[in-house]
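Quiz preparation item.
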């Protein structure tokens, strides 16, 4: 038994990271501390004004653990990694997980290439970006090919010169084919020099050169060629518009500002305590300024509690955002001060390898730019308010309706199961998972039925549930390590009783609902605790149940289709450890069918060619292993 008061006495005064666990042993909060002893104790001191969110969190803490670090900076880095790994309920969380592309020019190669790159590496190449749009990067690379006819292939030059025919880009006039020796190294490098100037924003010479070529082509009545030059000029101008020149000294900066949902609500409206506990949406807007040019902007949705201050939200955003982006600017401009500014500056500086400053402009053009970012954030949040409200209704609101119908509380995770047959032979099972009303596809699982012969849905479902709930998890990140708050069965009384039988056998208590269907195979109600609960088909809860039911069915159908395409008769044998292609073929030649293999004894299995005692026993145990 974890005694919180006793464990508090053992806390060291060192810097580190602490993790709060609830009664289900899920991590609900991760924080860092200069002194673990002082920081963690504060949560359990009744005299402190902790705010509504923290007070609610403390009531759910069943135990805590901590990791000691050598410095506060190390604690910050570890905190960022753990928040990203566990996504705790009470931490302010980024809803987006974006990465920004670069244009990479391999100047270290004899014949450099222009490539699309997702991250910067220390490989002596030259990188441009990051850009906010992968599409924009591809457009620029395509334009560079048309203008300067540089390569992007993986051939090693000059070693591979003349070994293969020129590629399609040569015939499209988008590559000078250095792989064939059609251009000298000096002339090719001159083209690369122009590429670098172009990517640096120096496009006037290129436009002038193209305009001259367009004029000459038109005078010689080569109108098609003149049209191509015209299109190239327009493309350059379009790219130039994306890189609007600003007046910020040619440096790299990010401008970060935010808006919260409460900004859009009526001023002065006093919130009830239960409203303060609700999550709210926030939007952070980031303007990216690279070498004095505003190359783009992007916005990010966050999940926050109403008690969180702007400073707390911005601090959480900076740590999560810059732990995942490959490029750190020289300066970050914020709309408000943050408490841990100094340590975040130190962390960003260590990541960049140069001094990084966090500033809060108070006047002038920089202050106006921050306000512009904040206004953009408010506009995004206002525009999406109704969409977010509808999305919440489709997910969290729908789950609350299911709670009301069943009398259950705190439903977070729901699992649904379905069985499908392949032409009346070889059943398969599917498991789909929904958390907070949204599908969690990383936790979906497929089952090949091993213990049941023929198309017996009830027996197959019993096998699937037995294997799922008696599964020995490989770790806390295994999808079977979390038990559901509610099991949804694709059927009524019969399917529910199968699930209850399995749970009772394994000593588990998990609510089970059946999704009862009408004559047209449409859900009409829920079967729960020996009663059918009629549900309104116009509600979001009904729509969510229907989506879950359809998803379980779709996942099973797709699985058995994929198995059919891979010769299912042999695919189950593929899963038997130690049975390779030769033994699989020998088994099929000797027994003729999968049922005969399944029904054979160890001695009978040994009769097949190349089968010995060990391999025969492996086959037998695969089909007849104790289901517990």
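Solution:
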């Amino acid at each position: 038994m974890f005694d919180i008061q006793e464990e508090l006495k053992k806390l060291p005064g060192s810097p580190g990271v602490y993790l709060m666990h609830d009664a289900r042993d899920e991590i609900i909060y991760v924080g860092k501390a200069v002194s673990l002893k002082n920081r963690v104790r504060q949560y359990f001191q009744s005299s402190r004004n902790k705010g509504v969110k923290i007070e609610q969190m403390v009531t759910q803490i069943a135990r805590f653990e901590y990791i000691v670090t050598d410095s506060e900076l190390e604690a910050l880095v570890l905190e960022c990694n753990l928040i990203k790994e566990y996504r705790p309920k009470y931490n302010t969380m980024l809803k987006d997980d974006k990465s920004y592309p670069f244009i990479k020019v391999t100047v270290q190669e004899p014949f450099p290439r222009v490539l699309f790159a997702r991250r910067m590496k220390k490989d002596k190449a030259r990188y441009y970006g990051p850009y906010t749009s992968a599409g924009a990067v591809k457009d620029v690379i395509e334009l560079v090919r048309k203008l300067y006819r540089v390569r992007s292939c993986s051939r090693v030059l000059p070693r591979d010169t003349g070994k293969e025919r020129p590629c399609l880009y040569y015939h499209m006039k988008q590559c000078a084919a250095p792989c064939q020796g059609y251009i000298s190294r000096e002339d090719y490098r001159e083209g690369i020099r122009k590429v670098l100037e172009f990517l640096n924003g120096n496009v006037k010479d290129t436009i002038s050169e193209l305009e001259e070529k367009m004029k000459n082509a038109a005078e010689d009545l080569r109108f098609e060629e003149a049209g191509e030059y015209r299109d190239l000029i327009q493309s350059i101008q379009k790219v130039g518009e994306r890189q609007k020149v600003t007046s910020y000294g040619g440096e790299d900066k990010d401008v970060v500002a935010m808006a919260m949902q409460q900004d859009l609500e009526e001023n002065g409206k006093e919130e009830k305590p239960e409203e303060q506990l609700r999550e709210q949406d926030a939007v952070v807007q980031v303007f990216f300024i690279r070498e004095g040019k505003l190359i783009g902007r992007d916005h990010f949705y966050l999940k926050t509690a109403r008690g969180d201050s702007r400073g707390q939200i911005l601090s959480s955003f900076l740590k999560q955002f810059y732990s995942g982006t490959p490029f750190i600017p020289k300066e970050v401009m914020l709309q408000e001060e943050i408490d841990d500014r100094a340590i975040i500056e130190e962390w960003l500086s260590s990541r960049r390898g140069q001094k990084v400053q966090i500033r809060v402009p108070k006047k002038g053009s920089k202050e106006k730019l921050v306000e512009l970012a904040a206004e953009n954030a408010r506009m995004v949040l206002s525009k999406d308010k109704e969409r977010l409200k509808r999305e919440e209704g489709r997910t969290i609101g729908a789950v609350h309706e299911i709670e009301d119908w069943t009398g259950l509380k705190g439903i977070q995770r729901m699992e649904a199961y379905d069985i499908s047959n392949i032409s009346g032979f070889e059943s398969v099972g599917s498991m789909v998972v929904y958390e907070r009303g949204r599908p969690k596809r990383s936790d979906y699982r497929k089952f090949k039925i091993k213990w049941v012969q023929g198309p017996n849905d009830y027996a197959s479902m019993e096998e699937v549930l037995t294997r799922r709930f008696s599964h020995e998890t490989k770790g806390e990140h295994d999808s079977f390590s979390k038990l559901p708050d509610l099991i949804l069965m694709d059927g009524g009384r019969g399917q529910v009783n199968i699930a209850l039988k399995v749970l009772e056998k394994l000593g588990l208590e998990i609510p089970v609902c059946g999704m009862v269907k009408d004559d047209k195979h449409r859900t009409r109600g829920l079967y729960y605790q020996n009663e059918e609960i009629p549900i309104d088909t116009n509600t979001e809860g009904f729509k969510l149940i229907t989506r879950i039911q359809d998803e379980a069915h779709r996942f099973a159908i797709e699985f058995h289709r994929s198995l059919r395409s891979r010769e299912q008769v042999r695919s189950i044998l593929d899963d038997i450890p130690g049975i390779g292609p030769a033994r699989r073929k020998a088994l099929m030649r000797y027994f003729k069918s999968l049922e005969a293999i399944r029904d054979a004894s160890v001695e009978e299995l040994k009769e097949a060619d190349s089968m010995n005692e060990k391999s025969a026993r492996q086959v037998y145990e695969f089909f007849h292993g104790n289901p517990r």
